[in-house]
């Protein structure tokens, strides 16, 4: 960890706790700042806040009082989930107080270079693939961000012998000033989180922040098949490395005659890759490019791609019960992710879908429901998905209260040889704390069938 003095005696407000807020507050305290923590959860129900108070950090709980901003703070470190429309953040902006996320702190103290991965879909799979390739290639990677430990915690332990491989959301990237990954990846960009960002343009600009500080000493790996990502690459000062699943490229990562290539070098035959689903080829190409740029040998990349079959909640194989195969794709929080999951199977599917209603319709699913023989819906969007299923000609449709109830109903619709797929096309927050919780409930319900 770099010993920096830029926070000594600086008055800083950490807004919102959870893991990132606790780690950021403790780090800033260690760096000599005068830290105040403000969290909405009452102090009596807030063990994180209680622990920070024991460290000598000032804690204010139960509400977000805007007048707190008049105490002369020089910086706010906010939880990524708090939107910029929040009165506290709006008040800080009006007062000219800078607002960052803890990713910025991690970069400032880290001795290790970063490989940063962002995008709408595929971030977690790509991050895991990069980590595994670097690990197999003896590059001493550490994993951080949404998929692993809080970045500013990992950065405290990292040395210049490590790489920090970090999954980054648009929420986190809106709060950076100097963060500059040695290698950045943008997997793809589609409509998402518009309830947070307001417009697709703002969402794209947040994603583009991953390369805003890069120079010609760093690399940007981008999806050459998308206009949005090509435009970000065009504006970047980094060395740009394209990848494509549809076109052979003069440089970068691409597919040719059933093989994965990097800069005209054959890496691995597609048939030997363990990870299912054509959509995962984007993740594989971008991860392989990052590994090559990090100095990983082909043999290590090949070993990972021949054995890595996916991560939890991302098209995860759960079990076979009486000839029915169950897959957990709870991470499919938008329609594109569900389309990708449906395209991975060429056998009859019973689809479990539904969740938080963000105001969008699901008409784009209709062309991909041809193999769906039954649909089980739940959550706020149940009726919207039922309507889409009817338009697609699905005869068996059932609305249930939750995922736990959906599993036995789906099983009752199925026959040996069918796939029973949880791929909700929606966020989980109407009923569940996270997509992980939703996926775990699905897995438990599947095991109850035995």
Summarize the structure.
This protein has 450 residues and is an alpha/beta fold. 34% of the residues lie in helices and 21% in strands. The chain has 3 domains: 11-100, Rossmann fold, CATH 3.40.50; 103-307, Mur-like, catalytic domain (UDP-N-acetylmuramoyl-L-alanine:D-glutamate ligase, 3-Layer(aba) Sandwich); 316-448, Mur ligase, C-terminal domain (Protein-Tyrosine Phosphatase, Chain A, Alpha-Beta Complex), CATH 3.90.190.
Structure description:
The chain has 450 residues and is of the alpha/beta class. The chain has three domains: 11-100, NAD(P)-binding Rossmann-like Domain (Rossmann fold, 3-Layer(aba) Sandwich), CATH 3.40.50.720; 103-307, 3-Layer(aba) Sandwich (UDP-N-acetylmuramoyl-L-alanine:D-glutamate ligase), CATH 3.40.1190.10; 316-448, Protein-Tyrosine Phosphatase, Chain A, CATH 3.90.190. Helix content is 34%, strand content 21%. The strands form four sheets. A six-stranded parallel sheet has the order 7-8-6-9-10-11, sandwiched between helices. Strands 15-16-20-17-18-19 form a six-stranded mixed sheet, sandwiched between helices. Strand 12 and strand 13 (259-262) form a beta hairpin. Helix 4 packs parallel to helix 6 (151-157) and helix 15 (403-413) crosses helix 16.
